[in-house]
Amino acid sequence: MREVKYNYRDLGLSNTKEMLLKANREGYSVPAFNFNNLEQLQAIIEACVEMGAPVILQVSPGARNYIGKDMIPFMAKAATSYVAASGSDIPVALHLDHGPSFEIAEDCILNSGFSSVMIDASKYDYDENVALSKKVAEFAHQYDVTVEAELGVLAGVEDEVSAEEHIFTKPSEVEDFVSKTGVDSLAIAIGTSHGAFKFKPTDDPHIRLDILKQIEEKIPGFPIVLHGSSSIPQQYVRIINENGGKIEDALGIPDKQLHEASKSAVAKINVDSDGRLAFTAGVRKAFMDNPAEFDPRKYLAKGKEFMKKYYKEKIVDVYGAEGAYKKGTERK
């Protein structure tokens, strides 16, 4: 084993193993929220503390570059310190979202204090996906870091992830894949889609709960992950458009369907676009309400306020995770 620059436990972080197993046992899903800056991180961690919900703080490769990989461990430590100071016991994981290579996953583990990583080799053929996912899992497990892999392909665009076609996960492959790779959770493709422009108004967005059930039967009790699960809340689309924005024909997966999935083997649901929309709606409204405003603390605070409020609602309506852990003291 090589020396790590930051041990994730020293940062107050947890890996996802017990978090996801507890979620499966108790019939909810763990919120997995992406962040790109301090205000988004504050919105996420405050919402989860106040709701008593565990959280997986997700960093995409693009966000990692934007924030600066040397800054990320300190942001994670700030988040876990906030949790402790609030009197909450929610576990917090720091997770690499859609890691494109072994090298990036390795760097996150050794140099940035990540407690969990995803290796997304879904663009390769089955055998290559197995080989790369196994390589990452074997390396990560030396450091007690958990690993997520993906089987199937989600359509849509988000950060560096882009695919034109949706390829459903084959239930016949999941048992073999999990057994050969040794990964700790599996992202599947059952109808969700990346980005804000998932579906058109004429579409009928839905997830294939029948495929999910077949996968559950093949790998009972194994943590399943849903990517591309933003519902694209229309109230924020409307606020953005009413305040100088232009978000057209954006629809997502209905909350009701996601909540149904959360009560099954789906132990982790990823949301990114919803948070971006809520944050952007707050910032745009702040500028329209006060066009002379130039203090970032004022308009970014409004973005944080919108994002936090929305995620508190989503923890109840989608994840069913409220009160899974001790709630912290609410801070204004």
UniProtKB/TrEMBL annotation:
The keyword DNA repair does not apply. The active site is at D97 (proton donor). This is Fructose-1,6-bisphosphate aldolase. Gene3D superfamilies: Aldolase class I. Keywords: Metal-binding, Zinc. Zn(2+) 2 binds at D120, E150. InterPro entries: Aldolase_TIM, Class_II_FBP_aldolase, FBA_II. Its cofactor is Zn(2+). Binds 2 Zn(2+) ions per subunit. One is catalytic and the other provides a structural contribution. Zn(2+) 1 binds at H98, H194, H227. GO terms for biological process: carbohydrate metabolic process. GO terms for molecular function: aldehyde-lyase activity; zinc ion binding.
